[in-house]
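Make up an example, fold above all:
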Amino acid sequence: MSRWTTNDIPPQRGRSVVVTGTGGLGFQDALALARAGAEVIIAGRNPSKGAAAVAAIRKEVSNADVCFEAVDLASLSSIAAFGERLRADRTSLDLLINNAAVMTPPRRKVTADGFELQFGTNFLGPFALTALLMPALERAESPRVTTVSSGAANMGMKRINFDDLQWETTYAPWKAYCQSKLADLMFSLELGRRCAAAGIRLLSNAAHPGYARTNLQTSGPGRPQNRLEKIMASFMSHDAAHGALPTLRAATALDVASGSYVAPSRLFQLKGEPVLVQVPKPARDETAARTLWEVSRKLTGVAFAGLS
């Protein structure tokens, strides 16, 4: 089987895309999609980084249709404002890539709405954003939502801890990150199931980048890489451009279905070519996924019209 690369991305001209995150994987996603002809909206919380990302893409792709929009996934009011602006600006949206994340702050922090930072930013923020953009997505011809999970979804947490979702009792940075990424994967599957049951033509799938060298590891909130991670990164990781390939395949390829999961092919899915892989067992718990959906709806106050 031939290797899947950005050259395999189908033409994207006429398609509109929102990618969350201004650097690392999000930047590589935006760059590749702009090259393929898509109209790309880079959504992030830092306007200066957003402007730099737009400038860098325009330097690489002279005719790129790309812009930046401010949104902070750690703030429900910011997400609501972004959703309102986007709905006012356009009638439809073809693709949403839920990519932006934070990783393992050493001390427990909370979002503007009081959620534990990783659970709030990595999962509840994308949950609310997807709900608010659903009307625009539903009006597209072949809409797709690709949510970036992680191999961590199958490490450290074998189930969602509904008794302490916000890690108020005992905060464990790595376990909190794992739970947020497990929640992302469960959400992706549940969204696909609910859309299928409601007769909505939206493809929802997930990807994980493997061990990609991005600023998620190197400049997290107060958490530099430790010595072991630096040693491991030298031979067990790949760069951001390769780390973005699973997401790009999930987001664009015609051979992926709703509920699919794309990940690197080698070294226990740490690096390699983007291939379809089995969804880990913890994420296949449909009862837990339904509970997570309802809890998230109540926490965010945001509902998916027609998908209750």
Summary: The longest strand covers residues 39-44.
